[in-house]
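call fold target=Lipoprotein
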Amino acid sequence: MKKHFRHITLVFFCAFILSGCANLSGHSLFSHYSASIKSSRQALYQGQIQGALDSLPDEPAGAILDGMERGRLTLLAGDYTASFAALQKSDNAVKEQQNAARIQVSEGLNQAGALFTNDNMISYQASDYELGFLHLYLALNYIHNRDLNGALVEMRRANQVQEAAKQQRESELASVESQLRKEGLADNIGSVLARYPNAGQTLAAVQNGYLFYLSGMLYEADGNLNDAYIDFKRALAVAPDNPYVAEAVQRLAERLSMTDDQQLLAKKYGPWQSPQSGTGRLIILDEQGVVQAPEGWRLPLWLYNSQGQSVLYNLALPHYPPRPAVLPGKLSLNNRLLTVPPLVNVDQMAKQNLNETLPVRVLRQSLRVIAKEQVRQSAARNGDEVGNVLANIFNTLTEQPDTRSWQTLPAQVALYQEDLPPGSHQIQWQGRSVDAEVKPGRTTMVWISRQGQSMSGWSVLLGGN
């Protein structure tokens, strides 16, 4: 009778933990995010945008990621109303989450569930680079609708939310370091971090040159040359080898009479050549490929149990295996092949973000595998063989890596700029094209996104040069 009672207790305890988790789903409990949207990503890789939308599961990781994925895919599909609505849904979910007082109780249940299941049970918090892209794509929707003021608001918000997310992450990492020392796990987890493939931190991996350049371009179109100059310089710090970013900085340095900057820039990039009279500026923002998705990675970890014995546990962590990005070929402008240098490497940003959050992930995993093992040992000591077997099965099935991330983003974004005579010009690729009207003294922005054999794109005439 006692064995039967202990067995029932274990089952009902697990049921209580799981039922209390707001994020409970089959995807988060017995699988992981990358696996749940694999079909959608495969369709996107092949350029089948509608197929990617149709196979996207319904909120496998909550409203924030769902809004991001759907907002991106509907933008590629040309459904700007649906794109804006989905991105706003994600934005509203982020705002609600950031109100800590409102989510404290429910998040406590999620954390408890995560201690006995996996990190996928914790409410997803978008990284700072993802929040930057969220507002960037909201801004692109505004630009497409010729709403420059709305786009500028999103650019300002992007800088604010990225900074807030960065501060929150730094605070969380400091808390984790303190807890590692308290739990006596610093040496064990240090060995895990030493074996984990390191992305390597560079400025380009933590700052978004795409966002900075787009912001500078919009400020310049609005006549705010000082703010434009600041953001162009930030873009150049991220992408110092991009000649078109350097050209934008030199152009603004000339217009603002930044003599010292002009001299320094000329030494590195050569003297700036002013455009011919009567021309207009064509700027192409070229999104390429699909960002890499994290995969599961099993790693052994030796820890001491409550009896002081060294026990081998297995951690399930997200991981980006070495894999070259699949990028499309060259664009053409009026049947002339273009060299379009990169502005941002999104793969690199995703890997760096994972690397930065790794100590937090490893600590949670270590505490979790210990807690699961204690439940199993308790059942074994009490002679509850059924409970012991159930605990083993439960532990194995629920230990899933947290692979949640925005997985429909491009792999990289490139930039091209040229001063052209007025008239209609055409950007071409594999039989597809986008028309762009150039006017004297004006800037024409062309947005293009290419995945598989698909090309989405449009052009819009901005303010003066």
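return ok
The chain has a mean pLDDT of 82. The longest strand covers residues 454-464.
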